[in-house]
Amino acid sequence: MATSKEEREQSLSHLPRGLLGLAHGLDKADSAMAVVERWLIAGCVIGMAVASFSNVIGRNLFNYSLPFTEEIMQILQIWLTFLGISYGARVGRHIRVTALLDMVGETFRKWLLVAGQIVTCALLAWLAWLAFKYVGSLAASGRVTPSLRWPLDVLYSIVPIGLGLGAIQFFMAIMRNLLSRGAWMSWKTPEIDAESGDLSETSL
Which range marks the domain in which residue 146 is found? Predict the structure, then answer.
C-alpha cells in the first residue's frame, strides 16, 4: 500500500528548502507519469477485450474470423508488458531476492537496496538505448505488420519508452532513499508496504 501524501511529506521534513523543492518536483512528475500510464494500460486492456470479443462474435454468429485480431492482441500485449515495467517499479512489485537483505541490519539493508536499484536503473537505461537503436533500424527498413500494414517502428516504440520509464522509476526510488528516512522500494512505496502484499491501494 502506498503511503499517504502527508506521510511522504513527513519523511522529507528534515530536508533543506532546496532539496525539499526537488522532492516536490519529483513527486509531481511521478504523479503525472502515473496518470498517463493508467490510461494507457486501461486502453490496452479494453482494446484486448474488444478485439477478442469481436472475433468470438464474428466467428460464432457470422462464421467469419477477423484476420487481424491476433496481430492486435500481440501488439497490445507488448504494450502492456513494457508499460508494466514502470508500473511494477512504481508500486514496488518487481520480483527480488531478499535472502541477503534479511540477514543484515536496517541501515546496511537500505544501502544494499539502493545498490540493487542503481544496478537495475543502469541496466534498464542501457536496454532502452539498445531498443531505441533497434526501433531506428525498423524505421529505416520501413517494415510493417502483415495484416494491418502498420509501421513496426511506431508499434515497437513502446519498448524503449517502457524501459526508459522503468529506469526513471528506479532512479526516483534511489532519490527517495537518498532524501528520506527509511528504506523505499519506489518514490511512493516504502519497503514495509512492498513486503506486506497489500495491493488494495497503490500510488496510481
Answer: 14-196
Per-residue pLDDT of 59-110, as tens digits, reads 888 888 888 888 999 999 999 999 999 999 988 887 777 666 677 777 788 8
Number of structural domains the chain divides into: 1
Residues forming a β-bridge with 184? 190
Q: Flag whether the pTM goes above 0.85.
A: no
DSSP-derived secondary structure for 168-188: HHHHHHHHHHHHSSS-BSSSS
84 in a structural domain: yes
pLDDT at residue 130 is higher than 50: yes
Please return the burial class of 100, using the count of CB atoms within 10 Å of its CB with bins 0-12, 13-18 and 19+. exposed
Residue with cell string 524501459: 163
CA 202 – CA 30 distance, rounded (Å): 13
Confidence of residue 196 (pLDDT cuts 50, 70, 90): low
Helix (H/G/I), strand (E/B), else coil: 165 = helix
Determine, yes or no, domain membership for 188: yes
Q: Name which of 75, 172, 177, 91 is nearest 124 in CA terms.
A: 172
Are the C-beta atoms of residues 140 and 196 closer than 8 Å to each other? no
